[in-house]
Amino acid sequence: MRRHPPSRHVLAFGLAALAGMVDALGLLKLGGLFVSFMSGNSTRMAVGIATQPALAWAAIGLIGAFVGGVFAGALLARAAGRWRKQAVLGLVLALLTMAAALAGSAGDGLTLLMAAAMGAVNNVFQRDGEVSIGVTYMTGALVKLGQALASTVTGGPLLGWVPHLLLWLGLVAGAVAGALLFGRMDLGALWVACGWCVLLLLWSAWLGPLPRPDRLA
Questions:
Q1: pLDDT, tens digit, for every residue of 114-167?
Q2: Total structural domains in the chain?
Q3: Which letter does DSSP use for residue 210 in this model?
């Protein structure tokens, strides 16, 4: 994250909080499956194949929706050029709004839209066509946190570990908020997630387009 200016760190922390909130809502609704943590869903799928086929199919559907969201977001990012952050966030907002509008339904389309939104949001931060900051999964952030701490104690940057910690804390804080909101609003809390996404989109718009050449994505 050191290559990104502080203003974009704020956006990353906010996106991690959004991912934590949406994933907590999905987890509580689905009773053990996730809408953004596909490593967990992959394990649940494998266990389901061996013990509970219905669980495996549910996990497969979420994984497919997530990958579809990544695919759509990547295509949109390519088309939007220097405005890709704003375009991708617009797509995420649209998917979350459709999910929120279905909050009272009993179908699977709602959680699939949530998974697609979480897939798409990973296209906000890219470098050379690949994800530069993962905002829906924190294993990489925790690995980098440990590495940065090791660098600090061996003479490296004193605070180089802080952004990775804040990214993880952003997701945790969002998940706590999502769990609290679910107890009061069920999946109607998706409207709160939509409102948060609007704020992030406005912040991204204030930051403006990516610089030329595109090296600070």
A1: 999 999 999 999 877 777 888 988 888 899 999 999 999 999 999 999 999 999
A2: 1
A3: P
